[in-house]
């Protein structure tokens, strides 16, 4: 039981807390009941549910938890409202994602606990997935819900994180929840290998992809399906709740049933790749799909590809930065990237190519697709061998640092000259030190004011255009189609912004969470009014007194004005130094074709392989130099 993932049941609820769909797996539930019978204390002393509750009981228990914990996610930490036995009593943020429900049975009217329920929220739906765990794990969690101390103490005998690390079924349940969420919201997409040549992209990429005929992902060719249809799939190992329920379209319901029957029969996840499952259902199997006797067909390639052979690669990096422009706080820049691949190759070939840029000075974290033979990390140039699956897939993920410096440097300043007017200044340098073929496709700077309504602004930037919305000012420095390549750009933007008069509002819920904190009066305010140098501090203090406490999901909005966010896209290469040598891509068995090479970041190998690279911004934050900002102390080497 410990070495695999099995799912007891799953539920899909709406934001009105009604169960739209549920699926129970009797085979797995039988194992749970047998484990409980072997451990009688599990039922008598720890009030563990011996069987699965009904859909109505799940909905009622979920509503009770939302009332008790404040929201579907919950507090995640112990606060004044936390009740002994609840998730927040455990005082661990992971309880916002792995929750418990308490239900009352009709026989004994006792509160029975159902845990661990993996909670995934997607769109208007809440997906609950219940994996199979040992009764001892559930008893440990029950004891943590009633202990007097809080937090995970170092060296403690029982803490939640080590407990979950020993449960691989939790990881599997998260994967199931995420895939179910993607299916019901229609977000089942493959990793982007080729960017469509649409007018929204523009520039060099459109001309290149259009010239070689790449516009979208290739879709499987429909073929007669062998066997029964999705609606008639066998369900002997699973039992669904098929009562008429509103809110989920029949097409979505059939897609979920079909996916569950194929991906996790009898409650055991086998292949959660929606592309593989769909392709098998559409194409079926034929005698030509049987591999040679001397080759073993991997699980990630359930049928063989036939058609024109080619390989496509993309390197997609996301830059996260916190720019402070302060001597006492260093700027922070991190890069997360992935190498996406699509290999349309006949048979079961192996592909090998050298990865450049794996030295530890730039790339520090690596993870590979299970089809790859992982090289030892540490050398500058290493060969990666993999047996590619069908469709688009992420071959490798990594995190590292930029070897070229930040693509956007400079500072942002905002100071309040009165209670409802602020003066700001941007001074930025774009693409300094960057050379062709790297080019910036677009760049936009946004000043958000989530708790102030913008009435007007005054100012003219040195480059670009400015637009104003109710709660933000947007500065488009570079627009799509007018990219910058081979040169740096200096951009300045001084101006003022006027807000609507401030209307103090106090949040009772925030005060309840943080405790009853009384405002203290002192003579500091009287003294500062006589000192003109402290006028700005006085105005800031006056406004921040009545600011709403921000939710945990809004980490950058804990003040009325604190930061500006930069969005951009860079084409033509990577910032970490990660790259693929196009002349060294080898396919075994070998493909007899000439090798051609292009220098425009679009490579043609044997008329079969293409490589595109792009960099986009993640949370690229310019903190207000004159305001407050969060910062984490870096450990000393």
TrEMBL record:
Domain of life of the organism encoding this protein: Eukaryota
Subcellular location: Endomembrane system
Keywords: Membrane, Protein transport, Transport
A single cellular component GO annotation: lysosome
Name of the molecule in the record: MHD domain-containing protein
PANTHER family, alphabetized: AP-5 COMPLEX SUBUNIT MU-1
Record membrane topology: Peripheral membrane protein
Main location: membrane
UniProt family annotation: Belongs to the adaptor complexes medium subunit family.
Any single GO BP term: endosomal transport
PROSITE patterns cross-referenced by the UniProt entry: MHD
């Amino acid at each position: 039981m410990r070495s695999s993932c099995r799912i007891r049941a799953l539920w899909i609820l709406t934001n009105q807390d009604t169960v739209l769909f549920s699926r129970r797996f009797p085979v797995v539930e039988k194992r749970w009941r047998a484990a409980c019978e072997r451990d009688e204390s599990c039922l008598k002393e720890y009030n563990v549910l011996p069987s699965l509750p009904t859909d109505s009981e799940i909905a009622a228990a979920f509503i009770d938890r939302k009332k008790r914990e404040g929201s579907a996610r919950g507090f995640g930490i112990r606060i004044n409202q936390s009740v002994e036995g609840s998730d927040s009593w455990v005082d661990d943020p992971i309880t916002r994602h792995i929750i418990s429900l308490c239900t009352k049975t009709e026989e004994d009217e006792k509160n029975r606990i159902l845990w661990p329920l993996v909670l995934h929220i997607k769109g208007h739906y809440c997906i609950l997935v219940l994996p199979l765990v040992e009764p001892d794990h559930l008893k440990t969690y029950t004891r943590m819900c009633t202990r007097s101390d809080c937090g995970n103490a170092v060296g403690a005998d029982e803490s939640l994180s080590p407990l979950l690390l020993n449960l691989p079924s939790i990881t599997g349940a998260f994967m199931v929840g995420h895939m179910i969420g993607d299916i019901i919201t229609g977000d089942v997409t493959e990793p982007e290998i080729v960017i469509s040549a649409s007018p929204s992209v523009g520039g060099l990429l459109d001309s290149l992809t259009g010239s070689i005929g790449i516009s979208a992902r290739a879709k499987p060719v429909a073929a007669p399906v062998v066997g029964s249809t999705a609606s008639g799939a066998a369900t002997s190992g699973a039992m669904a709740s098929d009562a008429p329920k509103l809110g989920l379209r029949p097409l979505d319901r059939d897609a979920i049933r079909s996916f569950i029957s194929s991906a996790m029969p009898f409650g055991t996840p086998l292949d959660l790749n929606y592309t593989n499952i769909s392709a098998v259902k559409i194409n079926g199997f034929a005698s030509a799909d049987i591999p040679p006797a001397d080759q073993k067909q991997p699980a990630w390639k359930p049928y063989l590809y036939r058609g024109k052979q080619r390989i496509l690669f993309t390197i997609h990096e996301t830059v996260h930065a916190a720019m402070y422009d302060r001597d006492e706080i260093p700027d922070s820049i991190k890069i997360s990237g992935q190498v996406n691949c699509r290999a349309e190759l006949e048979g079961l070939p192996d592909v090998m190519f050298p990865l450049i840029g794996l030295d530890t000075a730039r790339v520090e974290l690596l993870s590979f697709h299970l089809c790859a033979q992982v090289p030892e990390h540490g050398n500058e140039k290493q060969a990666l061998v993999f047996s590619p699956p069908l469709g688009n897939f992420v071959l490798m993920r990594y995190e590292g640092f930029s070897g070229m410096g930040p693509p956007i440097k400079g500072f942002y300043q905002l100071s309040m000259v009165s209670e409802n007017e602020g003066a700001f200044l941007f001074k930025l340098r774009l693409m300094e030190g960057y050379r062709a073929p790297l080019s910036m496709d677009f760049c936009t700077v946004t000043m958000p004011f989530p708790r102030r309504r913008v009435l007007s602004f005054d100012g003219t930037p040195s480059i670009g255009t400015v637009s104003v919305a109710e709660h933000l000012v947007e500065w488009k420095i570079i627009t799509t189609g007018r990219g910058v390549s081979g040169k740096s750009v200096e951009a300045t933007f001084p101006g003022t912004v006027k807000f609507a008069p401030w209307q103090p509002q106090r949040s009772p819920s925030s005060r309840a969470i943080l405790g009853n904190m009384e405002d203290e009066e002192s003579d500091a305010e009287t003294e500062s009014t006589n000192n003109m140098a402290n006028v700005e501090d006085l105005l800031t203090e006056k406004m921040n007194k009545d600011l709403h406490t921000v939710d945990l999901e809004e980490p950058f909005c804990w003040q009325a004005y604190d930061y500006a966010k930069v969005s951009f896209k860079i084409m033509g290469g990577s910032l970490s130094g990660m790259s693929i040598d196009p002349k060294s891509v080898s396919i075994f068995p070998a493909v007899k074709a000439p090798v051609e090479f292009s220098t425009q970041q679009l490579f043609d190998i044997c008329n079969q392989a293409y490589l595109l690279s792009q960099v986009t911004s993640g949370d690229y934050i310019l903190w207000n130099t004159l305001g407050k900002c969060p910062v984490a102390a870096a450990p000393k080497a």
